[in-house]
């Protein structure tokens, strides 16, 4: 697999995958300097007259004429055999972006009706965090991040903020700027203590001593 490494290396990579996507997600392109379309996510971009810098996947979810259209309107086009590959199309795109160690990766179209894919994509946040790359998942109703140290957030257009452990236990959780503050708290998988908190300040902080904590800003 030959992929041209962009020069200079991008600071913000956005990946559009084949889950639920809306036109509002295209506003995120204003802050991106490299765009990857994963399988049907590449088709979404091309349909909106946006040429991805890279289109990657097995393209088994598009028609043949759509695959040709994607290939003709992408900076680079790399396809994989649908059987002889070990990763989902989203993870293929994500692994490529992660190799470049950008400052930030944004994942769009990685949630939807397939809960198995959604959970697998949320788990990618841990791989990114361990590599030191700030990564977030965004859809119409959610902004999802992961921390194992501290995180500062400004008030979001999502009124609710929930905390869920991604490791079996998260300790030393301290919240500032929330309707329901916590100090040196512990969350274990299976608990709902961290669900549906709210902002009371324009800037909030979350800190943990040990473990991986999902931070999910949501709206109905």
Automatic annotation (TrEMBL):
<dbReference type="InterPro" id="IPR053149">
    <property type="entry name" value="TPK"/>
</dbReference>
<dbReference type="InterPro" id="IPR036371">
    <property type="entry name" value="TPK_B1-bd_sf"/>
</dbReference>
<keyword id="KW-0547">Nucleotide-binding</keyword>
<dbReference type="Pfam" id="PF04263">
    <property type="entry name" value="TPK_catalytic"/>
</dbReference>
<protein>
    <recommendedName>
        <fullName>Thiamine diphosphokinase</fullName>
        <ecNumber>2.7.6.2</ecNumber>
    </recommendedName>
</protein>
<keyword id="KW-0067">ATP-binding</keyword>
<keyword id="KW-0418">Kinase</keyword>
<dbReference type="InterPro" id="IPR007371">
    <property type="entry name" value="TPK_catalytic"/>
</dbReference>
<dbReference type="InterPro" id="IPR036759">
    <property type="entry name" value="TPK_catalytic_sf"/>
</dbReference>
<dbReference type="InterPro" id="IPR006282">
    <property type="entry name" value="Thi_PPkinase"/>
</dbReference>
<dbReference type="GO" id="GO:0004788">
    <property type="term" value="F:thiamine diphosphokinase activity"/>
</dbReference>
<feature type="domain" description="Thiamin pyrophosphokinase thiamin-binding">
    <location>
        <begin position="149"/>
        <end position="214"/>
    </location>
</feature>
<keyword id="KW-0808">Transferase</keyword>
<dbReference type="Pfam" id="PF04265">
    <property type="entry name" value="TPK_B1_binding"/>
</dbReference>
<dbReference type="InterPro" id="IPR007373">
    <property type="entry name" value="Thiamin_PyroPKinase_B1-bd"/>
</dbReference>
